[in-house]
Amino acid sequence: MQLAKLCISTASVAGLAVAGALALAPAANAVTPASATVSFNCGFFGSGSATITAAQAGTTATFTLTTSAITSPISIGANSVTSTLTMTANGGGTETFTGSSNPAITAGQPISTGPLTGTVNAGDSLEGHSLNVVVFGISVTCTATSAQSPGPFQF
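Above: the chain sequence. Below: its structure as tokens.
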């Protein structure tokens, strides 16, 4: 009988410890939507749609972007693209997200870039405004020509 009480007490303590750890664990941040599309005009380099994906860890937001608005005329090695994504913040003002990372891109493929990182605050509402991409010293600036769909990223 004493052994049964000891087992029950041990199980109860273990259960309470797990519940306490879960209660004290930091909450996962969520950004919605997880991805969105926007159309870009990149002048001489073309125009087309872009898919932007978003993630959040604390006050850091990370975006990745692939756009058919710019295609690579030659193969580009990984980590050869420097990008700045400018987002309209809360209906006015802007926030920028930068990075120098990309997968290897073969000739004729759409440009892919990211992670692009920056700071966000709880309650921020961000929508794609412009993209600047630098490849081999050539700078391409793209401007959004449509509203982001399904809507701004909410942090």
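Residues 3-27 have pLDDT under 50 and may be disordered.
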